[in-house]
């Protein structure tokens, strides 16, 4: 302690004060002054004195108190400085730790992400692909979280700005649900999402940050829910010039949060209960980041919960509509109106969400729990004259297995009208043969996605209304609306001439039709009869695209594709478009899983082929080194055009199916030989060429005769594979030539053989032979007309 | 009083004032005060 008189003879008092402070910063100083300079004395405080006193007024207790206070103040100031230094040091260490830790985590994570990406390119079943895809998505999400930890300081400092990009709300919601599917299903927790019908889904905003908030809330909900379900619900709050206000709510049946814990939830580094961190993990940062992001999105965040009673975390956010907001969210639902559907699932939440969707789409939907109740409901409805069109059944409910229920429905004559769709959880997909044997037409993977549900229901309903198996539902000529001659590619000739196509197809009729179709569209193609021939052709030729039939003798399309990909081993990439007669969900995945780039279903529709070739040619051209000099304008215009025709085409196909079905019943001859298909085949011929169609008919009649002999022989030897192969081949050829009823009959034989059920097929072969006679007669008339 | 535990240096040119301050401190309970002049 120094008591310093400011009036000193040799050195001015403030100068002494400054020097003292520098020499002994921890020693408190009390300045003293005479009455004349008392005003100056106040300035002593500025120069570092703790106090000042005017000497005339010094009473002993005043002096003692000044000394004591000065000493205390200096100590307090020192303590504060130390605390500040240590806080700064601790923040610096924490930042350093976070940076180091995120680096340490990122290194192995990058390994996981990289290896899963490599794994995706190997031979995988569709189930495996799905699992590995979720593994990859989860690793990506984790990587993002690590980055978020680093981001946290930025957000806190207000240095984060939101992106403004176009996105689809439905896709965003479904991608978040997909992230937690595996985790939820492992715990037996049902995960459900529901976007209200009036919510616009084509929005502008920051989808990554939205998904970050949703992931956090859904992740927490799954984490804190031991049994029951987690439901994400998206609803409209406001829709005005300022944007679209949307409310997201994630409801769980988990442990809940007591009221006093809810207050701290949205603050950084706090969870409702300290022990929560130990039991469930988590940084405690998540909700704080959510709260900050929600604020940036112009919304609010909150929670409703009680201990043991589950929680609902909700937030609102404002998005902009996309400038050219296109289609309303569910256009395809129109054809579902009036369809009757029964949902059998043990989870009331899942069933009710499906019911809500179905009712929004105009369907008549009822719910039951368990296989026995489902059978009762289906039969009662059939007896009452209001049968269900579709039964959506869970494949592994506790009491009744879905396959058993499927078989029971299939074997019940009264329920012949009802199409069965199975729902299964990840990793529990039933085998294809079992599924077909149980009469299950399509599968949906849980958690049920709104778009997926709509697609499967639409396809199934369309197939049901045509009363043919979905796989051959397109035999109807309505799908071939545009004439082949109208489909000439808009791509420049110099581009098309550089694209060589290999057409791999075992059936001669299909081969000829497709070759000619390609020619008329403007592409040159060479044929190969099976996978083995395709491999040989590829060794000798520089092909850009292969149209690859999936089912072929000697070597099928899947095997050939795998072999082609193996040989390419990262080098030049042949675009392979799979062509398959099956239209089951999963076929596309199987095509893609074996390395194909895209997929077409049979019978091949010229317009689809044209669109497909335009799409892939455009991509191939973009990869050409001389692409810059290509006439971009024409390419873009063509792509745009194709897009619109493709959409319109799909809609037409659906809308006209019922009308077509009507004409099928009223004109049995048309069912034997579809004149519209024949007209299209004639359209494939070059101008003035008369022999094309009669040549095709000749080839088909020959094929028909040999396939029938082979079918009979295979049946008498009970050779299931040969029955299936021949029925499949004949079905494809029949569909191609427009022999719709024959295609349907062959499809039934093929399905029966696939299910290993040859017994019933022997009576079917008699039907086929009778139909073959009708067909021959009809074809002969056609041939005569063509040659005339 | 806490001041008695404090060792203080008094820098004061005026001897009377220095004495006055020392007495005041002694009255109040006494701090050990050394008196120095600035050089």
Short description:
The complex is a heterodimer of chains A (788) and B (39). Chain A has 27 helices and 20 strands.
Task: List the topology elements.
The complex is a heterodimer of chains A (788) and B (39).
Chain A: E1 2-5, H1 13-23, E2 29-33, H2 38-46, E3 51-54, H3 60-120, H4 126-156, E4 165-168, H5 169-187, E5 189-195, E6 202-205, H6 207-223, E7 228-240, E8 243-252, H7 259-262, H8 274-280, H9 286-296, E9 301-305, E10 311-321, E11 340-344, H10 348-360, E12 364-368, H11 371-383, E13 390-394, H12 402-411, E14 419-424, H13 432-437, E15 440-445, H14 450-466, H15 493-496, E16 500-504, H16 508-521, E17 524-528, H17 531-540, E18 545-549, H18 557-568, E19 575-580, H19 587-593, E20 598-601, H20 606-623, H21 632-666, H22 668-672, H23 675-684, H24 691-716, H25 720-737, H26 740-754, H27 761-787
Parallel strand pairs in A: 1-2, 2-3, 5-7, 11-12, 11-13, 13-14, 14-15, 16-17, 16-18, 18-19, 19-20
Antiparallel strand pairs in A: 4-6, 6-10, 7-8, 8-10, 9-10
Helix pairs in contact in A: 3-4, 4-5, 5-6, 6-9, 11-12, 16-24, 16-25, 17-18, 20-21, 24-25, 24-27, 25-26, 26-27
Chain B: E1 7-11, H1 15-28, E2 32-36
Parallel strand pairs in B: 1-2
What can you tell me about this protein's structure?
The complex is a heterodimer of chains A (788) and B (39). With 788 residues, chain A is an alpha/beta fold. Helices cover 55% and strands 15% of the residues of chain A. Chain A folds into five domains: 2-90, Response regulator (Rossmann fold), CATH 3.40.50.2300; 165-321, Histidine kinase-like ATPase, C-terminal domain (Heat Shock Protein 90); 332-466, Rossmann fold (3-Layer(aba) Sandwich), CATH 3.40.50.2300; 479-666, Rossmann fold (3-Layer(aba) Sandwich), CATH 3.40.50; 679-787, Four Helix Bundle (Hemerythrin (Met), subunit A). Chain A is built from 27 helices and 20 strands. In chain A, the strands form four sheets. In chain A, strands 4, 5, 6, 7, 8, 9 and 10 form a seven-stranded mixed sheet that branches. The longest helix of chain A is centred in the N-terminal third of the chain and has 61 residues, at 60-120. In chain A, 41% of the residues are buried. Chain B is of the alpha+beta class. Chain B has one domain (2-36). Chain B is 36% helix and 26% strand. Chain B has a two-stranded parallel ribbon. Classes of the chains: A alpha/beta (788), B alpha+beta (39). Chain A binds chain B through residues 1-5, 7-11, 16, 32, 55, 58-61, 63-64, 67-68, 71, and chain B through 1-3, 6-14, 17, 20-21, 23-25, 27-29, 31, 33, 38-39. Strand 1 of chain A pairs parallel with strand 1 (7-11) of chain B.
